[in-house]
Input
Amino acid sequence: MTVRKYDFKSNPALVDDIIEELSEDEVLKPFFMQHDISSEVIEDALNELLVYRDEIKRCENCPGLHACTQDTEGMQPVLKYKRDQIYLEYQPCHYKVAADKQHESVKRISALYMPRMILNATLEDFYMDTKERKALYQKIIGISNQYAKGERIKGLYLHGRYQIGKTYALASIANRFSKMGYSVTIAYYPDLVRELKSSIQTGTLESRISDLKKTDILLLDDIGGEAFSAWVRDEILGPVLQYRLLDEKPTFFSSNLPLNELSKNFVSTEQQQEKIKGFRIIERIKKLAEPFNM
Output
């Protein structure tokens, strides 16, 4: 970043007055005293000091990046003292640091067929107006902290009536793990199923399945809301869940159905072989996630 230059040669008589003024400046004086800086060093750095004084005022009472008036958004001036010289440098302000962290966090989330609100969902905004929600909040905090410590955890199978906040809860979990540095995939399961079927023709099926298997955190929203497909059950969902179970990768679900009713969605007939295949899916979900009734 280029520091603009002030012209002192045209009026050298002002130099002493400027040095005196800067020495008593309420912003600069603590810096001079901290480093025991002489007037000679101040004179050598008049340009840097004047630019700093002008620009740091722009940061006072700043409400956020949206109101930033610096030449480069979010970059605030900083004075450094090294080897008897004063240097003017620039560093991200706390608003920019927070925005960059949020940007990096969002980049770690692969959101498939989900509303935009999932990018902003946080546990801080999670309504805790019932004892169930309070318990869920504590459970999410607990399991995420355990995982950060390297402990094995089970995900959650959130179930309950329609529009009770299951999707928002999943989105909050997704954002919490992404902010902790983990790769996250959250998908609206009925649309994911439809996309996977069509990906056979585009040749992207295997890469899609691989992503679902290997992402650090997988969250499937509204499982049980999809149309039944033996192929999806046997060739996609079953292998994905088995891989994640063996690799101890946290997996979360939401559904309108409790697990005992969800099992009916994975069988097409009353034949024993069909029941066994449906049973295997439910058993994998049970091993991956703890049921929680919202």
Notes: The chain has a mean pLDDT of 88.
